[in-house]
Amino acid sequence: MRTIFTTGQVAKICKVAPRTVSKWFDSGRLRGYRIPGSQDRRIPREHLIRFLKEHGMPLGELEDEAMGKVLLVGADAPVRNSLTDMMGENDFKIESAASGFEAGIQAESLHPDCVVVDFTMGRNEALMIAQNLKRNNEYTETVLIGLLSDEDSQSGFDRTLFNETFRKPFDAALLAERIRTLVGRKKQIA
Predict the structure, then answer these.
(1) Residues linked to residue 144 through DSSP beta bridges, in sequence order
(2) Of 72, 68, 89, which Cα lies nearest the Cα of 80?
(3) Taking the mean position of all CA atoms in its chain, how far away is CA 92?
(4) How much is the average pLDDT of 11-22?
(5) Nearest to 74 by CA among 16, 2, 124
(6) pLDDT category, 71, cuts 50, 70, 90?
(7) What DSSP letter does each residue of 135-146 carry, written as one string?
(8) What are 2's strand-pairing partners?
(9) Which residue ranges form the domains of the chain, and what is each CATH number?
(10) SS3 32
(11) Phi then psi for 60, rounded to 5 degrees?
(12) Apex CA 93: angle with CA 90 and CA 96, to 5°?
């Protein structure tokens, strides 16, 4: 994953001439720095992503890096809808799965940054999904959040499987903000 771009690389991503990128840089609209002792400009990834979003430009090849990907497992329609509304479609791609099997297939194709497991699907299945994700080396950095019912909150299980747990009913805005913070920390997106 590239973290610093030249004006030529930015020009390719934006589908403009390198001179246009230089003008954006020189006017202060696109932030970056100059290489000491030369006129060469460098643009850090996070500044480029911010610039593209601010100007409504397509992220192109940066889209996978820039967008947070969330997989909701076993979540009912009201939870899915409120989370989708709170997260925003420009910053997060949200997919859902109804079962553990479907979650495995979705995780393979989506490579989520965050998996939210709703315990209403069944405690054993929810814990099995969490354990399988933690065991797989591809998902060691994936943020895992559990949505617990009252019975699940009372009973003992290994909470270290999850980065966070929320007890139902919960504030969807708080959950959305927590996902945004944890995924943002992981991806370093603003």
Answers:
(1) 115
(2) 72
(3) 6
(4) 91
(5) 124
(6) very high
(7) HSGGGTT-EEEE
(8) none
(9) 4-63 (1.10.1660.10), 67-187 (3.40.50.2300)
(10) coil
(11) 55, -130
(12) 145
115-165 pLDDT, tens per residue? 999 988 888 898 889 888 888 888 888 999 999 877 765 566 667 789 888
Q: What is the pLDDT of residues 157-171, one digit of tens each?
A: 667 789 888 888 888
Token output for 36: 């000491």
Residue with tokens 């009973």, as numbered in its chain: 155
DSSP string of 21-55, one letter each residue: HHHHHHHTSS--EEPTTS--EEEEHHHHHHHHHHT
- Predicted pLDDT at 190: 40
Task: Say what the pLDDT of residue 189 is.
Answer: 46
Distance, CA of 148 to CA of 79 (rounded, Å): 13
- How distant, in Å, are the alpha carbons of 21, 22, 121, 178 from that of 181? 31, 33, 26, 5
- The reported pTM is 0.67
The type of residue at 94 is I
Residue 31 has pLDDT above 90, yes or no: yes
Amino acid making up residue 155: S
Give the Cα separation of 106 and 73 in Å (integer): 10
* Alpha-carbon distances of 83 from 46, 107, 138, rounded to whole Å: 25, 19, 25
